Structure formats: C-alpha cells, structure tokens
Amino acid sequence: MSTPEVPAPHPGIAGAPDAGTIARLANALFSALPTGAVPEPGAALGSAPLFVAEPLQSAIPGTPPLTPPLRPNHNPGSASPTIGAARPSAPLFALDPKLAAEPAHAPAAPLDLTVPLAATPVAPAPASAPAIQPVFVRETDLAALPGRLGDVRSIVPPDTAGAGPFGASAAAASAPLYFLADNPLARVTPAAAPTAVPRAETFDLAGLATQHRTDVHVLDRSGARPFDAHVFKRDFPILQETVNGRPLVWLDNGATTQKPQCVIDRLAHFYKHENSNIHRAAHTLAARSTDAYEAAREKVRAFINAPSVKDIVFVRGATEAINLAAQAWGRRNIGEGDEIVVSHLEHHANIVPWQQLAAEKGARLRVAPVDDHGQILLDEYEKLLGPKTKIVAFTQVSNALGTITPVAEMTALAHRHGARVLVDGAQGICHLPVDVQTLDVDFYAFSGHKMFAPTGVGVLYGKADVLEAMPPWQGGGNMIADVTFEKTIFQGPPDRFEAGTGNIADAVGLGAAIDYLSRIGMANVAAHEHELLAYGTEQLLTVPGLKLIGTAKEKAGILSFVLDGCRSEDVGKALDREGIAVRAGHHCAQPILRRFGLESTVRPSLALYNTHDDIDALVDALRRLQSGRGVK
C-alpha cells in the first residue's frame, strides 16, 4: 500500500501536532489500508509524531476530517468493536466515560484528537479469547491520595462472575493477602454495562501517599481511564520475540525495562535529523540537539516536580548519581568522626560509595535494621540519628525485596537532626509517582533504563542550595565559564556537574520515555502493578516448597523467592527454557539477602506491560519443576 509522504519535523521543537493535522493524517493512512486490514503489531501509525511540534503541518493538504469517526477499541474494517483492540490514534486510557455504559451498536463518539498519539495498533483478540476487563481509575479518586502507596489495598472488585479484573480469583477479591492482612480492602463498584463494553470501575485509593501524588496526566478529566496491559504490551517490539521457541515473558524489569516503539523511534530520529554536540556551536544541528537535550531536562523536572531545571543533573545512571553526591558533597562536608546512615535494604551502589568515603575521611557508616518482613525499624533508625549524622542515604524501593520505605517520614527525622538525605530512586521512579518537593529530599537519584528509557543515562536531582555549594566532581569542557592557566571559573548547576560530552541522544530518549509514562499516568501504573503484585503473591504461594522473601505490607512489583531443593540459578535457567526471563542471584544486594540467611533468590519483577498471563506462565513452570516433571 502507499502511505502519504510526511516532511521532516521542525528542528529542535518539542510538543504535539494539532488535532486537525492528526485527523488528516489518520484519515489518509486508513484510507490506504485495504478493507478489513489491521495494522501489524509494532506498527508506528500512532506513535511516530510523539516528539515534535510541527511534524505533519500541511502534509496532506485538504484531507477532510476522519469519516466515519472511529469508536474506541474499534479497528477499521472489523465488523464490530473488539475488547482489547485499540484504535491507533487514541491513548488507550482515554476512553470516553459515556461509552462505558453504551451498547456496542450505539452511535460512535468523536475521536479525542487534542492529545498526542500514545500507542501502536493492536489486532483484534481471537474470538475464543476471554473478554478483557480493564481497570478504570477516576480523576476524582486520584485527586485525594492520603497515606503511602503500600497502603493501597488489594485493588479488586467484588467477585460477581467468579473472577476479578485481570483474571483475579474470587479468593483474591474477597480477602487481603498476608502482607496486607491488617489493612481493610479497598473496594470497587462496577458500573452496569453490556458485556461487550469494558465496565467503568472506581477505586477507593485512600492510601496513596501525598508524597506519591503528582499530576497523573489523565486526559479526560470527567471520565474513566481503562488500563489494559495486554494493549500496552504491543508498544514494546521486543515483547513479540520468542525465546527457545516460546513467547518471551519478561519478568526481569528490576534489572532493566524494555523500550516502547516511541522511544526507539525518538532515538532514530535524533541520529537522523538532530545529531550534534550541544551548547557549543551556532549551526542548525547544534541548535536542534541542544533544544532536544534541554527539553528532556524540563521533562524530568516536571515528572518529579523539581522546582527548577537547574536542579536536574544528567549522569550515566543512579550509580554515577550517588557517586557524584558522595564525592562532590561528601568530601566537602564529611570529616573524621562524622556519621553516614544507610539502611540494610541497600543496593551495593548505595553502600560502596559511602563506605569508601567513610574510610577516606575517618567517618563511621551506620546501618538502619529491618524486621523479618523487610521493613525498616523506624524506632531503631531514629536512634542512629544525632549531631554527628551528616547524611542519610536509603532506597525508596528495595531492589531485592520490593519494600517501599517511608521516605517522607525518614527524611523528616533526618532533617530534624540537621542531616542531608539522599534517596536511591532507581526502583521507585518506575513504579510510583514521585514528588521531590513533597518528599523534601536533598538528593534523588535514578536511572533511565529502569523506566523504559535507554541505558547509560540517569539523573541526580539536588536542592538548589545544596548543588550551589558543591564543587564539580570532574573537570573538562562544557562545565566551565572561563579557563586560564592560573584558575578556572566554573558554570553553575547543573552544567558544573556535566563535564565533557554527555549521553545526548539517550537523554532525549529519556524524555520520550517520560512522555510515554506521563500519558499513561504513574498513579494508573501503580494501581495496575499493585493488583498484579497481589495476584502474583497469591499464585506463587500455591507452588509447593516456595518461600517468598520480603513480605512488607508496603511493596512494589518485586516477588523474590526461593524454592526448596533448587539452586536459584538453576531455577532461572529452567524458566529461560520456557522463554520466561527472571533474575537469579544476589541482585547486588548481598547484605539484605544475608540478613535472611540467603546468598541468592529468584526475582521476578513487574512492569506496566505485565499481565496475569505472565504470572500464570511463571507459576505453571514452577509447579512442573517442583513436581519432578521438569520444565519443558
């Protein structure tokens, strides 16, 4: 088929095409499809222009608006709307609320073309496939979110047909899991709707933290947003891969997440149209690359609600961010006899730099203990704080156990004693909404590759007064205002900490990943992952000889376990034979595993594209392994 020719985007400008332009393009694209055709999975009809302001202006002059208008979940050429099949041009969570109770034959609602396109098209589900019941979250529920994320209970509706959303069993819908046992369940009230149309369900999210409350970026403020991970999975080309002849089940998100097509496209666009070094030239490509790089910095700022782009330092990842803070801040502010407090939950990246600094300066490293569920003992933590405490460094979410730490409370206690606070957000940024101003942390570190962005890029957020008082960590180009052989005058933050040529393209890719997550809404991601965590916990506990490690009441999407009679590495290899990717080992968190008497665990870890089917495949394989039949 032929597709309309689209001119290159305007250099260096970020934003979204206008509604009329998108309508003309979509109409022309679908006009070119043969009757009944459905775009292939991974096609980029809806995702290519996510990152430009004027990508398609006058591309198809005179093309009329879309006719006829498409219903949500309707593929052109199909006989009727299909649950789980998404129109290519609409964000998957922006369902018109009127359609939730609208029969399938009702008049179609007009397209909402006021927002960027969000996802790639999806083929209709086979006729034999079970109906998908997406989760809906209303704007009104997301506007008042007290408590911490882990206080969100098992988010499932009353069991009206033998199963909850995403295939949750009646047991999961009627009783809290053991790590939520002392908390009442949140309930949902499904709206009456025909079986052919997804029902709107309202969650009582009366536990989601103020510190996790950011702009959730919902698009239709009056309506409900469905969350269907099966559809989002289509945005990630690698998830269509097969491994050992089996469909890939990616449950190694704690190590790295996969990349959506829009991020891949953005990287390709940068290298095709914008590639140049930044800040140092007057030519057009330098302007384009500089604009794209600094636009990504602004996206990061908005995503974590930092006060200024000057508070956002691009680095290689969370590890480099922590090392930067330890060296640039720590060497100036920590001396002999001072104390650094970390927690027992930490990744090696948040232990080793402080350990090295303590050894160099003659300071003392102190460790906040955890209980047998993997929760920080706050009373014991507070006892560690005193006049000698200079900095407290702890994780937001444990990469080994999934424990969500009480960041705001721990930060307030540290500040009461005059200490600075660094939070390792590598495992938090991908699961939770983050607001650094509400958390009141002095530093927040995270990696792009844990949040669907490329590897090799990350961020250190620092409060303005803290960064201003820090000397540069490395010297070189880009971070100087003036150099003579007698002295050097450095730039202010953040340039002072970005010596040399940075990872420009991947920073731009990070911006594209933030666009993707922002259109979905991190509160929606958190609600989906929490329900999946509850389902996964319930199902894994049915496997004979399986013991979960890390049973905190407040958890993110980590399901570490050991299996009687099996080495963790052997379990990981056996699962790989079925195309199931998990992490098996010590997860660069040996101290916390040894706290539980272990050297390694098997660690499935969740992301927004994981489904009940992924959990079921994992559990079925583990049952066969334990029954002695082995994994096929």
Automatic annotation (TrEMBL):
GO terms for biological process: cysteine metabolic process. Keywords: Pyridoxal phosphate, Transferase. Gene3D superfamilies: Aspartate Aminotransferase, domain 1, Type I PLP-dependent aspartate aminotransferase-like (Major domain). The keyword Acetylation does not apply. Catalyzes the removal of elemental sulfur and selenium atoms from L-cysteine, L-cystine, L-selenocysteine, and L-selenocystine to produce L-alanine. It is an enzyme of class 2 (transferase). Its EC number is 2.8.1.7. Residues 60-86 are annotated as: Disordered. GO terms for molecular function: cysteine desulfurase activity; pyridoxal phosphate binding. Residues 249-618 form the Aminotransferase class V domain. SUPFAM superfamilies: PLP-dependent transferases (SSF53383). It catalyses: (sulfur carrier)-H + L-cysteine = (sulfur carrier)-SH + L-alanine. InterPro entries: Aminotrans_V_dom, Aminotrans_V_PyrdxlP_BS, Cys_dSase_SufS, PyrdxlP-dep_Trfase, PyrdxlP-dep_Trfase_major, PyrdxlP-dep_Trfase_small. Transmembrane segments: none annotated. It comes from Rhodopseudomonas palustris. It comes from the Bacteria. This is Cysteine desulfurase. Belongs to the class-V pyridoxal-phosphate-dependent aminotransferase family. Csd subfamily. Coiled coil: none annotated. Residues 62-71 have a biased composition (Pro residues). Its cofactor is pyridoxal 5'-phosphate.
